Amino acid sequence: MGIAMFIITAFLLLSVYLGIKATRGKDMSIEEWAVGGRGFGTIFVFLLMAGESYSTFTLLGASGWAYAKGGAVYYILAYTALAYMISYWLLPPIWRYAAKHKLVSQSDFFASKYKSSVLGLLVSIVGVLAMIPYLVIQLKGLGIIVSETSYGAISPNLAIWIGMIALTGYVMVSGVHGSAWTAVIKDILVFFIVLFVGIYLPFHYHGGIQSMFEALNTQMPGHAIFAEKGFSISWFVSTVILQTAGLYMWPYCFVSAFTAKNATILRKNSIMMPIYTLMLLFVFLIGFTAILQVPGLKGADSDLALLRLSIKTFDPWFVGMIGAVGLLSALVLGSLLLMNSATILAKNIYPLFSKNADERKIGKMAKLFVPVLSLICLYYALKDSSSLNILFLTGYSLVTQLFPSLIASLFKNNFITKQGASVGIMLGVAIIIYTSMTKTTLATLFPSIPSYVQDLNIGVIAMLVNIISMIFVSLVTKNGEIKQQEKQAS
Predict the structure, then answer these.
(1) 40: helix, coil or strand?
(2) What range defines the domain where residue 452 resides?
């Protein structure tokens, strides 16, 4: 075993050890396993939510997009900072309601707010459908990391199998407690490794950051700015709006808020997170530097930019440290995704088929669903050749369709009905699934319209359809309810 693989394996074993140790002395009920008994303080909540900023997608996919798409990658920094700012007002009322009603999943929240188990089921299905592409990203990312840092000794497919087994066992054993403790190690490493590599590489190869961009602009003019068509300014703005709305619609992000001791912790977290996301700039710098140093990476192979440049530049032991950052990032976010998907299936879908589903059985089923979901994601990870960023955007567009009905539910006088919320979500999701499967865009639907309209993220169009239909159906069904009540009163 090379030194790089030895270091990565050591950090994996350390994570498993901390996960096991963190669960000692705790009654691992479904609430303890999934949301940590709602007892996490500021640091743990901060680090769990930071998993979105520095995931496997961020390290590999974001640097890969800087490499392949250039200026379009800036959307990641913009939407994360804006979403964290909005969370200052969004998360506290969600936490208070969830704590009061002892909710452990996003689906519980919608079902309780709208008093509709059917809507809860719909939200469950949307959440799981969205998280599967994101889970595939974690497995593909783990596979890339293990394969590349083994210097080709382990094939990508075998590496994905190894990643799946490691992630599945880790989640079943440790629950959210393991995720929290691993996040501590991961974020310490991220801070030093990403900061160092992002600064060192431009200076090492070009003598500075400005010189790197000058050299890049000479070889590829305009690569680091927005394109005139395709990934243009209108695509950027529409995508930022969409994903700002969608960040906390991911079930694992939504439920991470449930782990806090109180709402004040969530407000403190929202103040710190936008500053923390500035480190994403250093990930972008790595991708831009790689363009001239490891040329020729096409399509999904652009996700290899960070690792290929690191292998070219650093000694194997340091490549192992970079691989460990990627591994821990995949474990933290992958475990949250797996855990929340399994919790949704066990808590919100399994009881529909079992009348005797008490909390003990639900907790057991949640852990049993973990390997089932892992195998499904393994299938797509081995089969799908899409780049990490395309998978990421697909999942994001799906969960964002939950945003309008969530916002409506937070108003004191919510006129949106369960029927309106359900129809809006279904239409929005249907548009996303259809356009993703057929690769339909506004440009293919309306080839004669201006390019700045063609470039709009079609997920925004799906959300507009969602909102309009939600309001229309709510007004119709609300009027029907009022007439029914008047008829009964007379």
Answers:
(1) strand
(2) 401-490
Distance CA 26, CA 265 (A): 23
- Give which of 394, 34, 29, 314 is closest to 178, Cα–Cα: 34
* Domain annotation covers residue 437: yes
Do 316 and 424 reside in the same domain of the chain? no
**What is the rounded distance in angstroms from the CA atom of residue 254 to the CA atom of residue 109?**
10
Q: What angle do CA 381, 386, 389 make, to 5 degrees?
A: 105
Q: Whole-prediction pTM value?
A: 0.81
How many Å separate Cα 40 from the centre of its chain? Answer: 21
Q: What would the 3-class secondary structure string for 297-320 be? A: CCHHHHHHHHHHHHHHHCCHHHHH
CA distances from 395 to 81, 131, 251 (A): 19, 6, 11
Say which amino acid occupies 22.
A
Write the CB contacts of 183 (distance below 8 Å, at least 6 apart in sequence).
44, 47, 48, 50, 51, 332
Rounded distance between C-alpha atoms, residue 326 and residue 282, angstroms: 15
Backbone dihedral angles phi then psi of residue 422, each to the nearest 5 degrees: -65, -45
Q: Which of 386, 418, 442 is the last residue of a domain?
A: 386
C-alpha distance from residue 471 to each of 114, 226, 363, 398 (Å): 15, 35, 37, 19
Q: For the CA atoms of the chain, what is the radius of gyration?
A: 23
List, for residues 286-298, the tens digit of each pLDDT value.
999 999 999 988 8
Report CA torsion sign: 147, 151, 155, 161: negative
Q: Which of 397, 444, 411, 386 is nearest to 129 (CA)?
A: 397
Rounded Cα distance between 239 and 278, Å, is 19
Q: Are residues 439 and 313 in the same domain?
A: no
Contact 298, 167 (CB under 8 A): no
291 and 418 part of one domain? no
N- to C-terminal Cα separation, the chain: 82
Give pLDDT tens digits for 336-368: 788 888 888 887 787 877 777 677 777 778 878
